Request: fold
Amino acid sequence: MTAYLIGIGIAVVAALVGAVLPDRHRLPGAAALSAAACVAVLVGAVHVLVSGHTSGLHTAQVLPLTGVDLSLDPLGALFIATTAGVGLAASWYSVGYGAHATPSRTATAMLPAFLATLLLVPAAASVATFMVAWELMALTSLLALLTDHRRRPETRDAAQWYAAMTHIGAAAILLGLVLLADHAGGQTFATIASHRGRLSVPLSSTVFVLTLIGFASKAGAVPLHVWLPRAHPEAPSPVSALMSGAMVNLGVYGILRVGGVLLGGGQSWWWVVVAALGVVSAFFGAVHAAASTDTKRLLAYSTVDNMGLVLIGVGAAGALAAGGERMLAGLVLLAALFHLVNHALFKGLLFFGAGAVQHATGTRDLDRLGGLARRMPAVTALFGIGALSIGALPGLNGFASEWLLLEGLLHGFASRSAVTDATLLAGVAALAITGGLTATAFVKALGVGFLGQPRSERAGGAREVGPSMLAGMGLLAGGCVVLGVVPGVALPALDRAAAAGFAGGAPTTLRVGLGLDLASLHGAIEPALLVEGLLAGIIVAWGVIRLAPRRAELRRPRRAEAWGCGRELQTARMEITATSFAEPLQRVFADVLRPDRDLEVTHTVESAYVTQAVSYYQRVDDAVERVAYRPVIGAVSWWGRLARRVPNGSVHRYLAFGFAALVLILVVLA
Amino acid sequence: MTATLAALGAASPGIWARIGASVLQVAAVAAGGPLLLGLMGKVRARAEGRVGPPITQGLRDLRKLMRKEAIRAEHTSAVSGLAPLVLVASGAVGAAVTPLVTTRPAIAGGADVFVVVYLLLMGSVALALGGLDAGTAFGGMGSSRAMTIGAISEPALLVAILALAVQAHSSNLPDIVAASLAHPGWLASPQRLLALVALVVVVIAETGRIPVDNPSTHLELTMIHEAMILEYAGTDLALVTVGEAMRLGLLLGLVANLFFPWGIGGSGGPLAVLVGLVALGAKAAAIATLIALVEVSTAKVRLFRVPELLAGGFVLAVVAVTTGLVAR
Reply:
């Protein structure tokens, strides 16, 4: 707890340093201090995860009336440790990212401030503390998002969406938690948890649904995800990484804290709803990621997809726990939390990579990139590790957690409840189908964005980025590889966190080792052995083609021009683009994506057989946004325009309004 | 490496025998894959009234390719060189862990359905990235098409095998094979039949056979797999060819042993392994012959109709799992 509090203190100082110091020193100063803050917090959180001790703190000083309650338990500590890891990398990365155009004071201060609030939320132990931390997180992230608003009008639009969605969510959470605190007879989480027996089922269900609206929106669950693909791409890359790697996680944290711990698991239909949100999000996010051509938008949709997978796990765990299957529930929740941690690692890494590319080429549009592998080999390699991890290739961390999640769902079929079985089946199908789609999306990002020939001049002139950005990426890439090769090392900590996720949760019976072994449930993978096998296979195959040919000149490949169908010249214009790469898949999923496309052929005046010009237009918008949000926004602006006619500037009219209101109040009171 | 091997050795005494069996499986798949391709070509030729190339043609082609130099396009990066190696390595590891010749290969503890499917995905991803690396029109087009088909066929493969896993209460492949051996009646169970149909569709798509892809075409508009590997030559192409043949061998062997496990060697001695090898060859050859006969009698489907076929396979696989749950 002490290390944690010191860390939060340093983060606050870092924010002040970022706001006060002169131009030359403020970015390195703020970054160094926030890195130190992350290390301190990481030490505190890991201590809790290893020892399993919960420690708390109450002080009446900071907030009037209620005071501040903080508590570090294994569940919160897991989220804090994840955030601190991504935050540490983001601090290193931010130095290089802002190196040649020092960000403004507000922007420099907001990164550590945002980080501090992210670290605070999972430790909050009362309704008041939680809501204050939650709102501060919304505010600081909004300010951090607005950094580039002068240069890019899209940023303002994204910030409006984000502000509206996050406040609707916060209002729902506040309403739910106040209702809960009122009926449980106290506002600290400990009081609420010990008095949950007093709550009637309709009341606790209302609380759960209200808070779920807010938390699911934060986690980017479809249909409350619309802010995410706008806000995450527009933020500066260190902030994008924190948003996608840490902030969305807190939505999942909220669902677990309120539904699992405070309300003690509750009804099984709550969790079926959560899992259903997960299935829809995973599928929708994966399809959109496969069709996106903007690097960061692709990553944002992939966040929707991965959070969907986590929600499937959380929902399945809740349904199993409600059915009395504590051990299986613990296993599935462990898998979901493992995937959440892994997602934080590879998504942070991928956003850093997209930021590095944007830094070097000035664009995020895959259709204007290409050829970076030869120009930025280190960034390509690191982005490649992230892309292959998220594609769940064996030996990297995405594979380990997806396997565990699948295994958990599969063994959950033993529960013998038809509703739970249907939920699990939908989860398995979603997990399978998103696997293929994610692989396609990231082959596109890596293959079109980094391989081949450059599709624009800026991409052709790209240079490798500086060491601080590479160090930030390297840290997360290292995490991906370690958790991928020896996933067993993370199990004890994850097990403690998962056991704290539902009231009365029991530790699972996973056998501790380097790989993952379900022991009594029969199921195991040994990624370390697979990696050894793969490396051996590569070396043997390489040896065969390099040593077997008798003539020495055959042992080295020769360079020649690519085959161009008999034409001599190959230009980048002939290369496939990200749009055309995604086109077949877009056709397959046209019902989900609803692309807006138009082909216009202009003929010459002389003959309709001779074409003068062909123009093709295509745009893939979010169908949920178009169908569910646009009409509402239209109605609200119509109402606003109507209301604007009432105040016409005449003082007499305003006096009349005041008088009428007074009379009305008197009438009502009488 | 030694530590993990020692850990394995402690768990079971016959560790070297099991590693030997795994190496044998890799060799069987590496040599058997090209032979299966040759067999399919021969069956097709005979059915069409031609003599056709000998069954060993695949191996002869490999020998020829090994004598030619590898040529890489100018704009390629290290990915072009790595992709064939990763393809072969993923196929080899897949062959080493899958119960093909014996039910207890070296890392049987890690021989999960998910592992084998994602090793196959690893090979597809490597080839697709290799196709994009040269920055040519054909390579990219082939990669795009192959990934589109893979995006639907890999999930169908996974779910179809999971239908068997639900029945056997384990997703460990040796456990599934052992359970099928113990319960011969399962073969006629509805979920198995549904899963078998789904798997056949997937295997045809994954190995690029008619009606999904035509392995012998080089016509721009129709080729999928051939477009992707157009830039490979010489020893690189030899590796790609071996890798692809290994995928075919692995998939056919997997289908054969999951549904018709008879003859597979248990943890017994050299004789059981030999019987297992012969049985595997016979079963895979039978399935390959059937696929070749299907190829002769059908026309290639239009590219944009292929996803419908595969989606049908995926739905069948999901129905198979559902049936398994209901029938329990």
